[in-house]
## 1
Amino acid sequence: MTLTALRLTVKSGEEKAHQPVDGNPTPMWKKTPANCLFQVPSESQELDQARKLMENPLLASSSLDSLPNSCLSFRTSAFSFASSASFSSSSLPSSQMGSPAHVQKLIASQDDPLLAKEIFDLASRQPGFRHSYSAFHTLIVKLGRSNHFSLMDSLLRRLKSESYPVTPGLFVDIMQIYCNAKMLDHAVKTFLRMPEFNCKPLTKHFNSLLRVLIDHNQIRMAYSLFQNSDSLGISPNIQTFNILIKAFCLNNKLSIAYSLFNQIFKRDMIPDVECYRILMQGLCRKSQVKTAFNLLDDMLNKGFVPDGLTYTSLLNSLCRKKKLREAYKLLCRMKVKGCNPDILHYNTLIVGFCREGRGQEAQKVLDQMPANGCNPNAVSYRTLINGLCKQRLLEEAKAYLDRMVSLGLDPHCSTFHSLIHGYCQGYRIEEACGIVELMLKGGFVPHIQSWEAVVPRICDEDGGVRFDEVAKMAGKDAQLVGRCRQYGSSASLSNLSHGFNFR
């Protein structure tokens, strides 16, 4: 079958090929609203075109890729034609396909995996041509990611039959592909097939498989593989144990996690900092703080320096259990043991104290921060101010707000609202209006809850006279002031909200 006989019609019926216009060559294909036609050249043009495509694979790729997806069958037919009996081995020597590296780049550039496979097969049919291993690897991954598993497996078998040296990275990619397709048994079988390719799996490849299985909630399958690791010729390392311990801790299987931790010592291995931290985090999540501190002591006795995440977990757990004195002692102990507390550790303790209504102790923590080389941030101040307001320690809260603003930190509207609400609860309208004025001058828009707190108090106090000042600060007109006077002491958000456009 020659190129003259090829014509692809998308819809029923055929149309005549378009003729050249003004001497310009007719395009190879032309799409119309009714169909997609391949323009048939003369026999001599066929040979010239095919030879050009064969001599320059990149030209072939760009020419065929320009066809619409509906013409896919033509694209594959064109490649098949290029290698058909129309050309003998003498007319197209293998060198015209380009080097194996050139073909590999051409395959890698294809978005369509089936077209990439056609290019691969075309090159394979050329006498004396041998694909590079990279071409196999690239095509196998392309086919696998597009769920062409049978084609992927046939290429893998061909690698074996042609005695290519296979790298473990290919098997890791295939295992990931199978897991993403939820074909987890195939992923495990792929790992077990590695020795068939004279490719000895290493512990890091075993760990990669465990991670992939665990990421897909197949913890039991991963654990079963681990239990058979010795028969597979795999020697688990600390990272292997860390992967499994973390998985069981996150799934509330602390007994198995602790058993794995003890196995480390039975294998004459020593846990690392990450291993201790993972187990301590699991214990803290289950509120087993005492056991977690026993692990911390064991860790310190062995000469390890716990990292910041370890201390964060312990501090959070102590604060949740309201053991704030122990949490403060741990914070002080950190620096002695070689781990300087950071902003997260200090803020954790400030939140703990404020949550329990112990704002003055939170003040001490914040005030000590600069001397310890850690400056408070906006979260530190906001947490403390809100905590002090809840305890009606408004003067202290206002002082920290002023300090915060002077440092250029963003107080956030909720921080202002805490003070406004506190002042209004104590009928300190002057101070409440002062905070509103401070907000507006700073470019902050008060929450509707802030207006709900301050407006009724103003109306109760002087019938809305002072509200004139607030309305002017907010840029409101006299109609809104009149509405406030109209509702007087019974003013509420439901009645006044039509006059406010604050959010």
Note: The chain is about 65% helix and 0% strand.
## 2
Amino acid sequence: MLRLSSRQFSTTCGVQGGEKWRKEQGVARSGTEYGPLTDLPDWSFADGRLAPPMKGQLRRKQQQEVLARRIVMLNDEMDRGMEAWSKKKEEAKKMEEHKKSLLLKPKGKLLMKKKSQS
């Protein structure tokens, strides 16, 4: 005998509470991505020295450095691409002007008409 189950299966992903509000306010999706609670040390010495950085802080710092290097690299690549595009455009314009200069020019009566019209 086959039993029918009344249990339902959901395929939606869970959303953390407040994620929509955080995005609207321009802060991190969750409270653990960045900010003073994750970036600053948890404790310090009594004489005011900072605590040694934790593994998570070092990892986040390294990820941020990698991201910053990638941004700089992509920005340089974009600048080089824009320069190459503008040079290519200028060369095409020069070629077009050169082709126009090679066209046959009016002679005789046509040249006289053209001069008198202008």
Note: Helices lie at 19-25, 36-39, 55-102, 109-117.
## 3
Amino acid sequence: MAHRRSQGIKLYLTVLYVLASCHAVTLNDLLDRASQRSDTLHSLSTSLSHELDSHFPPIGRMIMPRPSMCHTSSLQTPNDKEQALRVSESDLLSLARSLLQAWADPLLLLSSSVKSLPHPAHNSISNKIQELQDHSRNLGDGLDILSGKMDPSSQYISLLPFRGSNELGQDKISRLVNFHFLLSCFRRDSHKIDSFLKVLRCRAAKMRPEMC
């Protein structure tokens, strides 16, 4: 009985320590971590795009859909850093969270389709897609915590449903082109997310706009 009580006390103290540690993390620290994760996410998607480019047929560039066909294109976002600097902190975080959440299903599709991808490096690509999913989930968790520490409007999420099919195509060219297109859309959005979070980090550190 005494042993159980001792274990219970240890568990209680551990929980208190974890809670205290969480509360001790400042907004600046959270933004630093989020910015580092978003930077990793964008770098990884860029690396994947370059890997796909190495065996992408010339006809693929001719038939690949335009960027305006990305499923997140309907979301109005700043086009550059100057515009982002004029957007409120809560709106920037809301935009970043909306974009990230919109990629949960498309990343699952990329993950399930990579095995049939007609590319000699599909094993490497498969591992990197898994990393993208892991980093996206971790970043999403971090942004959820951030939104709880900022203005309530930052918790608003714009729904951007992915209306693509459950497969990328019947023939090899279609699968490769559609895979590349989805990844190019993700790369574009990961760059936006990274840019928005860097602006937020800059503001939290009270840096001058030209230093952001």
Note: The chain has eight helices and no strands.
## 4
Amino acid sequence: MASRRAGATLPSAAFLLLPLLLAMASAGLNGYFGTKSRYEEVNPHLVGDPLSLGPAAAGSRLPAACAPLQLRAVLRHGTRYPTAGQIRRLGELHARLLRRPAAAAAACPAAADLAAWQMWYEESLDGRLAPQGRRDMEHLARRLAARFPALFAARRRLELASSSKHRCLQSSAAFRRGLGPSLSLGSDEVEVEVNDSLMRFFDHCAKFVALVEENDTAMCQVNAFKEGPEMRKVLEKVASALCLPVEELNADLVQVAFLTCSYELAIKNVTSPWCSLFSEEDAKVLEYLNDLKQYWKRGYGYDINSRSSCILFQDIFQHLDKAVEESKSSKPISSPLIVQVGHAETLQPLLALMGFFKDDEPLKANNYVRQTHRKFRSGRIVPYAANLVFVLYHCDQVKTSKEEYQVQMLLNEKLMPFHHSNETISTYADLKDYYKDILENCHFKEECELPKVNITAIDEL
């Protein structure tokens, strides 16, 4: 990597210190941005070198004579711009600060700084992939190719699928571009298949849409936390810093200010003046608000959240099954590389279906303090460019035929211990056996069918 920096002119010491001081100003907040977190928060070694594979994981070594047969990756799109709704709310908050009398600037420096901040977001950006998002995907592709060179070798077939959303299609193209022309995978142009039935299964699940997505009472814990003492304290503090009556603010506006801090860091790699409104303690409260929404809408809150993803889970295993059968028949593997680009909402239910990051106690509005050390932290699980990778291996020189086919699973490029063994490698047979009920008895059509009577009571979920 040194060659990429060779020959650069040495900057002045003051210039070097400036980004360091800016970084220190928001460093305490960076770990709490939830689903708006940079991928570098889960893999800090990438800050210095975006192509680094990081430290070797302990216990990650495969048995001798194991060769990868198939890689199946489900990715979240890269860093994106805010949605039109978030941009509108930010514009509303910024306009309030601009309406303040100029004479009040001395008494309220934070408000003056934010009034002077340029509102550069336009509604047309509406959740689109940012340039940093393209880099996220290009670098991820290069790192995966470096981790699994045999699978990404020239003339290996790559199957690319994507959600229909523009940010996912652009992420897919960036991933392909990251592999470069030297890896002529099948052909120079890999066609991207739009597959919303797998990447946006939640949109096609009538029960989820009616009883969670469009049911206000399903988010009662989120709404209760917005009105609770922890959020009230943050609200009062931000109102005071902006010299605004607390009645002019609400949890949504405070959250959009906090997320603007996260967007500026992720998109532009700058510390926004919006960050100055929040302490690390505030950030923890706002992270919990984000996590509550993820938990009740995409995680363990309601069974349908995760059960709706069984269509994707089963598809993963169908392709693994096919690769095993082809290998047993000494046929070439027809799909050695399958990469699918979706959303945080694609990955979070799938991980919940598999039982990962489940806390003993549900996340609720009234147990914020008890959940300080919770497993369910969305920023650690599904940051931008999050990735869940299954790798199927064929192993020679094994004691039993069952050990011939083995699997590893990586989340965000880190090996995940399997539930049934607490090991980072499993025989394929054991893994299938552990998830037998989901593989055989979770039927998307039946799971997602609405009850005959229109019941919207929470206990039905």
Note: The first strand starts at residue 66 and ends at 76.
